[in-house]
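Sequence, please.
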């Protein structure tokens, strides 16, 4: 497995990734807004521009936080199995430092925990010593991934922005 920074060469693979969530009627999280761009009739190239703007710390707008998005790619067939977004600062909406997703047909194979554990190695490079991961209280799989990577449940609360009961996990690095 490897992290791949989004690029034009992965356009169709990324579109297929999002399409699979729709085919399986699965909630989409941790994609740095790719599904939103595609649903708004914007292009993959528009989304790539957004991804680049998200890492431009010096010029990021006040309503945003910097974030780094990666595809988690299986090397033997170059298939995107997951996506992960790492934020050096917590957003004001109640999201955590890291958001992630695994494509529906690749779930329950250990990719989520592997991806998160691989991402945790990168986090100290951007100054993070503690990671907060949040998920909907009903998302048992996401909570399990956090726990497998050392996450400790620190809070449960209702988030008005997401209109959901949320669990917050802390991982010390």
């Amino acid at each position: 497995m490897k992290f791949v920074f989004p690029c034009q060469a992965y356009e169709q693979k990324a579109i297929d990734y999002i399409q699979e969530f729709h085919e399986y009627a699965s909630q989409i999280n941790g994609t740095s807004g790719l599904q939103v761009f595609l649903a708004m009739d914007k292009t993959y190239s528009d989304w790539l521009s957004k991804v680049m703007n998200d890492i431009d710390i010096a010029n990021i707008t006040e309503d945003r936080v910097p974030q780094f998005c990666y595809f988690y790619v299986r090397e033997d067939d170059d298939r995107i199995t997951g996506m992960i977004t790492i934020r050096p600062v917590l957003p004001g909406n109640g999201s955590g430092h890291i958001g992630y997703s695994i494509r529906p047909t690749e779930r329950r194979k250990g990719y989520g925990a592997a991806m998160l554990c691989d991402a945790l190695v990168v986090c100290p490079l951007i100054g993070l010593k503690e990671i907060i991961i949040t998920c909907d209280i009903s998302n048992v799989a996401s909570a399990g991934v956090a726990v497998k990577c050392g996450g400790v449940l620190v809070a449960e609360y209702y988030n008005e922005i997401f209109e959901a009961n949320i669990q917050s996990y802390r991982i010390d690095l």
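Strands lie at 2-4, 68-74, 79-86, 98-102, 130-136, 152-159, 164-172.
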